[in-house]
Write a structure and sequence with these properties.
There is one protein chain. By secondary structure, this protein is an alpha+beta fold.
Length: 162
């Protein structure tokens, strides 16, 4: 997600929803791009946004530190999922694990699924009415010492399974 003038993801639910609305209208670039101190990456057929990030856990990975951070991200995930469901109906769950070990003729997973499957096990997906795009919402983490992220992916409907 685009960041504010300080390089941070948006801080309120309303700001996150506004940013989702904005990125749904942005064209997909011809090549890979990263903007906003890494909070948004885009490329042919996709955008990937960090909507919220917890602290990192390099110094302390104890449950007393990690669990409250996980809960904060999960609460915001639920709030956003509820707001998006009120707009577009109930989401479908897309299992991302199968995309990690694609050894068939399909090759690597298309973006943003390729990035998301390395960060999260599943995502909630809404097919945006009146268009050819989908919006996916996921909670992910690159490794235990990295921040927990609330992520939004936008892609072309043709790449979704089913």
């Amino acid at each position: 997600m685009d960041t504010d003038s300080t390089g941070n993801p948006p801080t309120t639910t309303a700001d996150r929803l506004a940013r989702i609305d904005e990125v749904l209208t942005l064209p997909f670039p011809a090549g890979e791009e990263s903007e906003d101190s890494g909070a948004r990456s885009s490329g042919p057929g996709h955008h990937l946004l960090i909507l919220r990030a917890s602290q990192d856990f390099w110094d302390d990975r104890s449950p007393e530190v990690v669990e409250p951070a996980e809960q904060e991200i999960e609460v915001e995930f639920s709030v956003l999922a509820t707001a998006l469901s009120e707009r577009w109906g109930e989401p479908e769950t897309v299992d991302l694990w199968p995309f990690l070990d694609r050894d068939d003729d399909a090759g690597v997973a298309p973006e943003p699924i390729g990035q998301l499957c390395n960060l999260a096990g599943s995502m909630q997906v809404w097919r945006v009415p009146g268009g050819t795009r989908w919006l996916g919402l996921a909670v992910g983490q690159a490794d235990p010492e990295f921040p927990i992220w609330l992520l939004a992916g936008v892609g072309e409907s043709a790449i979704l399974p089913g």
